[in-house]
Write a structure and sequence with these properties.
By secondary structure, the protein is of the alpha+beta class. The protein is 55% helix and 15% strand. It has a five-stranded antiparallel beta sheet with strand order 2-3-1-4-5. The longest helix is centred in the last third of the chain and has 35 residues. The chain starts with a helix and ends in a 9-residue tail after the last helix. The model has no long low-confidence stretch (mean pLDDT 87).
């Protein structure tokens, strides 16, 4: 049995991990067996740029953290080498970036499962989530759709104004009396 100091350290790690998982909008668990340092560094850099936290996790501690927040469905995947990618603000970022990397390195890097907004999801759902464009592209698409009718109306008004100004610029000449 571990001594009290070690036990309290592990309990603190579990509590911190549980809090992170609970506050994250999404997360993806991966099996990273055989990844090179170069590939791992590139992946971590890409994830960091997207605001995704990535770390190797201990299965036992992760299992305790997952069970604390009601993610018991993760128990079967928490074996072997496990890493976790978490995002606090973009639900698609971890799935999208991890899926991209996994496609290129499918023999050594595999998605195990994930969660989104408090719900555990399987590999198929993580892949479906990965197909959703990034948040900024979605926002610009929605904004473009909202602005389109206003822009079209503005163009019509401008065309009418241009026609009227052309008509005023060249008034009809009055007949000359001789």
């Amino acid at each position: 049995m571990p001594n009290a100091k070690v036990l309290s350290e592990k309990q603190a790690i579990v509590a911190e991990l549980a809090e992170k998982m609970q506050n994250a909008v999404s997360g993806v668990f991966v099996d990273y067996k055989g990844i090179t340092v170069e590939d791992d560094t590139k992946l971590r850099s890409d994830l960091r740029k997207a605001g995704v936290e990535y770390s190797v996790v201990k299965n036992t501690l992760t299992r305790f953290a997952a069970n604390q927040i009601g993610f018991e469905a993760l128990d079967p995947i928490l074996n072997g080498t496990t890493a976790l990618a978490l995002s606090m603000d973009d639900a698609t970022a971890p799935a999208r970036l991890i899926h991209e990397f996994a496609k290129k390195n499918d023999k050594i890097f595999n998605i195990k499962a994930g969660f989104i907004e408090g719900r555990v999801v399987d590999v198929a759902e993580v892949e479906a989530l990965a197909a959703i464009p990034p948040k900024d592209i979605l926002l610009s698409t929605v904004l473009g759709t909202m602005i389109a009718p206003i822009s079209a109306f503005a163009r019509v008004i401008q065309a009418i104004a241009d026609k009227q100004s052309e008509g005023e610029a060249a008034p009809a000449e009055a007949p000359v009396e001789a």
